Predict the structure.
Amino acid sequence: LFQKTQTSEISFYVLFSVFSVLEVFRMVFPFQALYTLSPDLLLSVSRILLFSRILGMLALAGTGIFSSQSNSSQTGKIISSIIAISFFFALYIPFDTGMWTECLIHKPGYLSMFFVLYALCVGAAFFSFYCSTEAQTSGEFRKAAWGILFLFLGYLGLLLTSSLVIVCIAVVFYVLGTVLLLRGIHQYYLWN
């Protein structure tokens, strides 16, 4: 599918996809009801989850922000910076190991900061793709802008809900966003 598409946007999307897989660590928390798990283990898993979530948000934001970048030589440095920033936040944001969210994860301190960061990443990615559309007179980036918005909404729905109905809706948004984003990027670079 992406034979001619070797861009920084794809690198950031792959980074998001790879670190989204770390959500599987959430499966440790239901075992707390059956076994007495070490608070240190639960805290470590919570930090891994927070790291992957922050990294995922920043990687998706990077997809949009660097969409107008024609030189992809700095992509490795930017990805390294995103990983370092995510690690720093995951290491220093406090967790209350006595409080649980409805999704069976520890509640991080400064939860509103997480939502502010999320909103900034969504806005930056969406408007970067949208501005790239206007600057490059390309309708494909408009599709990618809507795709990244739907992807962010689906990702947020999957992270923060335990309702089966909302999870199903979030999966639809996630898949629709992924298809629109990747198809828009691919079509733009295929013809340019």
Q: What stands out?
A: The beta strands are 95-100, 106-108.
